[in-house]
Write a structure and sequence with these properties.
single chain; alpha/beta; Ribosomal Protein L15, Chain: K, domain 2; four-stranded parallel sheet; 5 helices; elongated
């Protein structure tokens, strides 16, 4: 007499692996290290090339985060002489205000007075040759206090020396 055998698809219904063992084994994607950027740590070896070539250069590997107070960079808005001449210069003797910018020397000088926070030496030379000038604005910087532990000498130490 023939007994009824249960079908395989009814036995594996509801199971994640469907008879292939570990969930990841039958995906057909090899040993990719996980999803997304998993497996790409400092010491890991998966997807290093993808992390290196990503849009955010230098943002994935290495140190990120807070720096000490002494290492804060001075940041300027920068603009070239060429851009000033093309977009802002209208007539000879103009007074152009770029008091929050650093003037870079790419381009030719022209006859105008530019007020700027900072400027490169090449930009200043080019402007003076053409009959113009760059006036640098003095910026008052606040002193950054460096916090350090004060040494407290106890009286007991002095007594022992005597």
């Amino acid at each position: 007499m023939k007994t009824h055998k249960r079908k395989k698809n009814s036995r594996i219904r509801g199971a994640r692996t469907v008879g292939w063992g570990f969930r990841q084994k039958h995906k057909g994607h090899g040993n990719k290290g996980g999803f997304g950027m998993a497996g790409t740590g400092k010491k890991a070896d998966h997807k290093k090339q993808a992390a290196r070539d990503s849009d955010e250069k230098g943002k994935y590997f290495g140190k990120q985060g807070a720096t000490s107070r002494g290492t804060k960079r001075i940041k300027y808005e920068k603009i070239n002489l060429k851009d000033i001449k093309d977009n802002f210069f209208k007539k000879v003797g103009d007074k152009i205000n770029f008091s929050k910018h650093k003037i870079l020397g790419n381009g030719e000088g022209f006859n105008a007075e530019i007020k700027a926070l900072n400027a490169t030496t090449s930009a200043i030379e080019k402007m003076e040759k053409a009959g113009g000038k760059i006036v640098l604005v003095k910026k008052i910087e606040k002193d950054v206090k460096q916090y350090s532990k004060k040494e407290v000498k106890s009286e007991k130490v002095k007594d022992k020396k005597e």
